[in-house]
Amino acid sequence: MPSNWLVIARLVVATLLGGIIGLQRESVNRPAGFRTHVLVSVGSALVMLVSIYGFNAETMGGRFSDPARLAAQVVSGIGFLGAGTILKEGSSVRGLTTAASLWVVAGVGLAVGSGFYLGAVVTTVIVFLALSAFANLDDRLLHRAKYQTVIVDVVNRPGQLGAIGEFLGAHNISIRSVYVHNQDENESVRLKMFLQLPIDCQLEEIMAGLASVDGVLAVTPRR
Q1: What's the whole-model pTM score?
Q2: Fold of domain 139-222
Q3: pLDDT for residue 38 is more than 90
Q4: Of 217 and 58, the one with more pLDDT
């Protein structure tokens, strides 16, 4: 059996590595964020620890058990959790990247639980870069889309963000992130939106159309 400190160390490392990826998903408002990724990573590490040390020759009366059998169920079982993050909106599908990150985090947890720290750390770094630094690289290289930050001041009332989203969706514009700031004692709200626009989209026309949406007070593009 491993020492208590070794068990604690592996679970803590699994928490840190899963949390790094989870924070990135949380920062872009994905349904599976920090807590979900931490739980998956720690749970996977625990399953691997149980597989290795809970069913060894000492506990099984001299009989050996394959530690991969129990751990393998994590890889297949994580699919059910990942499926809950996938959403179909019209002709587009969202959540595949988050589902994939959950699957990878499960692998990271298994690696930590088995003591394969190098593989777990390197995988975490690669995944974090793929989710953050490389997030828009494919679109930019293939010139499939362009990106724009826009500041929108709106009246503070229910349904206002939905009206803006409806206008943008009608022009095939995706909201990659949005930050809400209250101002003027809650009479108005400032939205900082990061938009993904079709490559042939005319920014001036979109800004003018957005300014004409009921309840929009001002629209300011940012470079």
Answers
A1: 0.60
A2: Alpha-Beta Plaits (3.30.70)
A3: yes
A4: 217
